[in-house]
Amino acid sequence: MIDRSAYVESVSRALRRSPICAILGPRQCGKTTLAKAFAARTKSVFFDLESPGDQMRLANPELALSPLRGLVVIDEVQTMPGIFPVLRVLADRKPIPARFLLLGSASPGIIRETSETLAGRVEFVDMGGFDLSETGVSKWRELWMRGGFPKSYLAHTQADSAAWREGFIRTFLERDLPNFGIRVPAPAMRRFWTMLAHSHGQVWNASEIGRSMGLSDKTVRSYLDTLTETLVIRQLQPWFENIAKRQVKSPKIYLRDSGLLHALLGLGTSAQVESHPRSGASWEGFAMEQVLRRHKNQPAWFWATQRGAELDLLVQDGNKRIGYEFKLSERPATTRSMRVAIEDLRLDELRIVCPGNVSAQLDEGISVIGIENLWV
Question: Can you tell me the distance from the alpha carbon of 344 to that of 350, in angstroms, rounded to the nearest whole number?
Fold first, then answer.
């Protein structure tokens, strides 16, 4: 069992501050396991809205929830949007007899419903799969290969992990998306998702993908937003600033989980991943997710100019601007583009993240840091 105490503490702090905490994350990332472990520490009641029995118990939510005391956990809350107005009323009681822990897979409606109906009453905790602080930094190869979904990472064999990820993709497309109210044929969405895997780490080009699929720019954009809202795709937005250079203005697209990326690319072994033409892009996405988790999801962008200068990631951490480059090399070198980024973006420092546990200063303001040292 991998310790996820950081999330437990985040939920605990959120419920001390607010009557409602909503844990949002992709399907199968461990939200239910975390909630049950948290609920076991106190008086609690658990509802799973994928269970017909619990759906019946909440047929009249106000009548069912009003008498409850302590902690009330409601799993897959996005399947019952009508419950949000009731939760608003219950959260406003003084004194507060019960606090609510909501779990959702970030369907297109859940964030909208909670932000509008429960404004000022709910605090969000974003949850993902395992990261290196949880698995141990020495396990970075396994985590990169298998991804962070618990059942994929903890599978007994590589074949078991690959089979789980393939099953996840099919279930996500054939059952989960329709349950979220998204009516896109599964084969079309799988083809689109696979195309995104081949474009992982590249600037979004709706026209090119639309032409390849025989669809309009508007349609492929809606597909992209769907996968973004369900937390399997990250759209990394470009940094804009009033500098005298033409800058790229479209987002970069990443699959948030490296294991799903490898499954969609048909890569079943570490050797296949490392020899694939997209191995560098795969490393970039994996390392980027670790950095973003390390910075606790502080505001982040990429930067690129029309003349070729670029920076993989720019993080605003407090008053510091930190740039990151991701290189699948144990001996990365500085480039002119890095120096341009430091000057134009006024970076406090630029870090090159590479495999292993190296750590060195390459130039003024530029250091190299191995993936194993990110969490030190």
Answer: 13
Rounded CA separation 56/295 (Å): 42
Torsion, Cα of 222, 224, 229, 234 (10° steps): -160
The SS3 assignment for 320 reads: strand
Q: What are phi and psi of 350, to 5 degrees?
A: -130, 130
Residues 101 and 159 in one domain: no
Domain match, 274 and 361 both: yes
* Residues 178, 319 within the same domain: yes
pLDDT in tens, 327-360: 999 889 999 999 999 999 999 999 999 999 999 9
pLDDT given for residue 305 in this prediction? 83
The domain boundary residue, chosen from 85, 101, 126: 126
Tell me, what's the pLDDT at 274? Answer: 92
In this structure, which amino acid lies at residue 306? Q
Q: Is the peptide bond before 67 cis (omega within 30 degrees of 0)?
A: no
Residue 104 DSSP SS3: strand
Q: CA-to-CA distance for 330 and 138, rounded, in angstroms?
A: 15
Category of 354 on φ-ψ map: left (φ > 0), alpha (ψ -120 to 50) or beta: beta
CA distance 254 to 149: 16
Q: Are 167 and 90 contained in the same domain?
A: no
Select from 193, 185, 183 the least CA-distant residue to 224.
193
Would you report the helix, strand and coil content of the chain in percent, each value rounded to 5? 45, 20, 35
Integer CA distances (angstroms), 112 to 22, 84, 125, 213, in order: 13, 11, 15, 30
Domain count for the chain, please give it: 2
pTM value is 0.93
346 and 266 in a single domain? The answer is yes
State CA 329 to chain mean position distance. 25
State both tokens at 362. Answer: 């390459």
Stretches where the chain sits below pLDDT 70 are 106-109, 242-247
Length of the chain: 376
Name beta bridge partners: 350. 323, 366
The tens digit of pLDDT for each residue in 82-108 reads 899 999 999 999 999 999 999 988 666
